[in-house]
Prior knowledge:
The strands form three sheets. Strands 3-4-5-9-8-7-6 form a seven-stranded mixed β-sheet, with helices on both faces. Strands 13-12-11-10-14 form a five-stranded antiparallel β-sheet, with no helix packed on it. The protein is elongated. Strand 11 and strand 12 form a beta hairpin. It has nine helices and 14 strands. Helix 4 (68-75) packs across helix 8. The longest helix has 20 residues, at 240-259. The termini are far apart. The mean pLDDT is 93. Helices cover 33% and strands 28% of the residues. By secondary structure, the chain is α+β, with helices and mostly antiparallel strands. The protein has helices spanning 3-14, 21-28, 32-44, 68-75, 94-103, 152-170, 230-234, 240-259, 263-273, and strands at residues 48-52, 56-61, 85-91, 111-117, 136-142, 175-177, 181-184, 187-198, 203-212, 280-285, 288-297, 303-307, 312-315, 319-322. Residues 93-95, 117, 120-123, 126, 128, 130, 137-139, 180-181, 191-193, 209-211 line the site of biotin.
Amino acid sequence: MTTDARILTALRQAEEEGVTSGDLARAAGITEVQLRARIKELRALGYDIAATPHLGYHLLDSPDALHADDLIARLGATRVIGRDIQVFNETTSTNDVAEKLARDGVREGVVIFAESQTKGRGRMGRRWVSPQGKGLWFSVLVRPPLAPLAATQLTVIGATAIARAIREVTGLSPQIKWPNDILLDGKKVVGILTELSAEADQIKHVILGIGVDVNVTEFPAELRDTATSLALATGGELSRARLAAAILRELDRDYARICEGKFAAVAEEWEQQCVTLGRRVRIHIGERAVSGRAESLDTDGALIVRSDHGRLERIIGGDVVIEKG
Ligand code: BTN
């Protein structure tokens, strides 16, 4: 942990009681003189830190901007996901940055956030609108010990962990649409873009690109009927940093589960929140379309569909339209 992350951790732990300058400096591993300089820097970043003689320091408020040290402090120790966090003000796509790090051999668990993306991308070559400071636009690099066929497991744990974190932070009841969308009242609030690099029988790395419309209040005309945000659903702005830490904590937990071969436990939770299972669906896979009833999820996270011709089809990706009836 960096010095600033240690300071923010100690301030958050102290809550209303506050923490004396001596104790805070000790927790951060620096002198009180150095602490004063760090507090000045943190205030300049927008942290409202009060200093009261004898009582010490209190954290009164945090800025809405994302800071790596703050995210690390909020997250605490994790097994893999979020061991390293990097925040960019602007990138083309956080998946591009993560892909470069993956090729450079960076260890798994690094998370790249951007306040805005100039070329945010969604599935099927669509663009992903990523306005400055309004959402969580981030990518997680993992190197799971799985076969390429099991890559859908990553999307499933991503959706399950994010839905759980949203429930915890907002009290809302998100629904999951296979494979990668999270909906609120039928409108999309989260998208996941899973990009895979693999050899014949082993995944090299996976980048989970996650877009959460947190405080977005205006959508382009073509998305107005199908997209929503957490702020629109709750009627108020949310702390993006708090939600980001909750998501990474849950992702770390579920990632550990799939690495230990316990995908079935996550899949069960996923199924309880899924709006796709049991419904009539039409799935477009490139030029092909499959119509039928979505029956279950298999052990690799693929969707099993009973087609209108009575055949069981195993679907690992595609554009799903849930039909009436
Ligand atoms: C989809 O539903 O089509 C997937 C959208 C994924 C968007 C996220 S935002 C962070 C990461 N960077 C990107 O360019 N895309 C993903």
